[in-house]
Specification:
single chain; about 140 residues; alpha+beta; Endonuclease, Chain A; four-stranded mixed beta sheet; 4 helices; 4 strands; elongated
């Protein structure tokens, strides 16, 4: 089925689709931080790449990546219509993610990316236990 919008109209529609945050996954991570007494995090910190959370003392940026928008292959999420548009959009998002990771790493930041499908206590404990300098505010 062809798109009902022209390319310019579709672009304008998509430009207006904005989200300040992925609220449900962010709230799950906040709950995890609070229940494990993890302190020192900042939400919506103004910096390149717009991480969802940062730990400024340890220079750690955390991104909660939506499986659809960032191209995770956890399940079949590709729309059946306008496939070329979505493949290109998701490909650009993946390239931007790599660019952001590289840029922040060069500036001395550690980057942690968490897929939305992995937001559960067991996974988060494994991620943050591996990052001992973040968990419970312990500096290494």
């Amino acid at each position: 089925m062809p798109d009902v919008f022209t390319i310019a109209e579709r672009s304008a529609v998509m430009r207006n689709v904005k989200s300040k945050s992925n609220k449900s996954t962010e709230l799950k991570l906040i709950k995890f931080f609070k229940s494990n007494s993890i302190k020192g995090w900042r939400r919506h910190y103004k910096m390149y790449g717009k991480p969802d959370f940062v730990f400024t003392k340890t220079k750690t940026a955390i991104f909660l990546d939506g499986c659809f928008w960032h191209g995770h292959n956890c399940r079949n999420l590709m729309p059946k219509s306008n496939v070329n548009y979505w493949e290109e959009k998701i490909s650009k998002n993946k390239k931007r993610d790599i660019e952001v990771n590289d840029n922040l790493s060069k500036k001395g930041w550690q980057v942690i990316r968490i897929w939305e499908c992995n937001i559960n206590d067991t996974y988060l404990e494994n991620v943050f236990l591996a990052q001992g300098h973040i968990l419970y505010g312990v500096e290494t």
